[in-house]
Amino acid sequence: MAEEKRLWLRLNRSCNNRCVFCLDALGHDGSMRPVEELHKAIKESLEDGGERLILSGGEPTLHPDFLKLVDYAREQGFGWIQTVTNGRMFAYAEFARRAASAGLSEATFSMHGHHAALHDNLVGVPGAFAQSLAGIQNLLETGQVVVNIDVVLNASNIDTLPDILSFFIEEGIFEFDLLYPVPFGRAWENKESIFFDPARASRVLPKAIEQAQGSGAVLWTNRLPPELLEGHEDLIQDPYKLHDEIRGRRAELERWLEGEPLPCREPDRCRHCFVSGFCNSLEDILNQTKTGQFSALGLDTKNEVSSNGTSPPSRTSPPTSQSTSLDALVKGVQRLEIHAESLQEAREGGRRLGFVPETWVLSLDEAPTEDPFAPLAEDWPRAERVGSQNPAVLDALLRGNWGPIWVLLEADAAAWMRSEKDKVMANPGNFWVQTPRFSGLSALCQRGVQPGMALKPLGEQPLHLVNLPACLLPGAKTHWEAPALPVEVLAQTTRIDLDLFAKHFICTLHRCFSLRCKSCNLRELCGGLPVDMAKAFGLSILKPFSNG
To answer: Which of 3.40.50.10800, 1.10.3210.10, 3.40.20.10, 3.20.20.70 would CATH assign to domain 6-257?
Structure first.
């Protein structure tokens, strides 16, 4: 679902609630988007393969043409039409019936309490709870619309979450999305009464989740910090949903790339923000582009970087009037990672780059028949390490005894290390172990391994562990390196490609900790666990080191 083609269509900037945590309340000016503009957006999305239409606001049902827009979207070909709503308009039975008849598939109600005193206080309107509850029942009675509920977790309702979920399950709702507040608008104005202590939430969430799932409910989370979901890591939001955040703030981010500061960047706000890790990483790369000195770049020869150091623009990038060659942009690179099918491809790719790295590492798909550590060109240094996730390549490197072996640890490579256990243990310092980049959770589950369990048969050997927590393999020598930024993120325009950078962030930089990690002696030296790895294997694999 995270990669489903969806159109989020804002119908207006008007709302009949005044939620204390509304993230875009400052933009509510009462305006309604023209129908012609909305029709155009619907058609363009369908032409681009749109599958789901989500009507949002403000409060979308306040748009005078809401029902006609549902009908239009169905006639044009949208297979699923959803609205995110406070639900008060659906309290009018005829409105609910007409929405269902027009083709509304799903209504997501924003409900933040299980009784009027709590909910009405949070949405700022007396009587809102009763109206929204009537709207839920009216839509359920049509038998044509899926009804589910969003709950914005905050300091006022977090302790009563089990009661909130139980109440609505009894009302016939069996799907919920638990949302973390976004530090904008009224949420930031009311931050002292909105944001809550993670430890407090971690005591309530497991009970609420287990109770709801025991009743047959389906739960999702939205922007919830992963560390709050230990024991229920399957509920950690799919990292690919980060693309939705970028689409929603693209204009601001594009201006940031052009040199205009991002207005929300302040440490206190950022520590509450779901995308703060993305922004921190992007800022780091922006600073590197200003000097032309990069910590680490990566070249995958399959991505067809051209002879002038440029690659085709991504399909999601806005067109630009100019492109730039890498040698004009890059003045120096501390470490270059090259992935190639063969040594010949690696040499050709390296020559095309137009710069010489201080150090470089190489991963291959085919077994080399000659020394892969040899410099790619006259002025290049020897490779620092060479490796693969292919056992045939690892075999060749072991036989050749050319230098440090870089093991990209997936299922076949893990089996190879076990089969060559005696040779590995004879010289453990010769092996550098790192998990490969996986395109998503499904790929990781198919081919990935839990590094600690995969390497456990080797015992506590001083292998080199790259960009993985030390607690996964006690006795290993841990190294935290800047993940290599793919050159195609830089190559095709005069600025960073946001979509390609987001993909890079999701695959390599999006990491998390357990709340237990706060007690670890190595906490400040650790980069955490990749979020997809936490989803696949659980945060319990982290075993903090502490004097206690």
So the answer is: 3.20.20.70
Cα 25 from Cα 189, distance rounded (Å): 11
CB neighbour class for 379 (10 Å; exposed up to 12, middle 13-18, buried from 19): exposed
Answer whether 70's CB lies under 8 Å from 99's CB: yes
- Cα(61)–Cα(39) distance, integer angstroms: 16
Domain extent listing, the chain: 6-257, 275-507
pLDDT per residue as tens digits for the range 20-71: 999 988 889 999 999 999 999 999 999 999 999 999 999 999 999 999 999 9
Q: How far apart are CA 230 and CA 201, in angstroms?
A: 12
SS3 per-residue string spanning 306-327: CCCCCCCCCCCCCCCCCCCCHH
- CA–CA separation, 176 vs 366, rounded Å? 48
- Sign of torsion over alpha carbons 476, 478, 483, 484: negative
The predicted-structure confidence for 454-482, as pLDDT tens digits, reads as follows: 999 998 899 999 999 999 998 999 999 99
Angstrom distance (rounded) from CA 296 to CA 288: 10
pTM assigned to the model: 0.89
Q: What's the chain's Rg over C-alpha atoms? A: 26
Strands 529-530 and 511-512: antiparallel
Tell which residue, 450, 71, 136, 498, has the closest CA to residue 320: 498
Written as six digits, the tokens of 533 are 């790895």
CA quadruple 435, 437, 442, 446: dihedral, nearest 10: -50
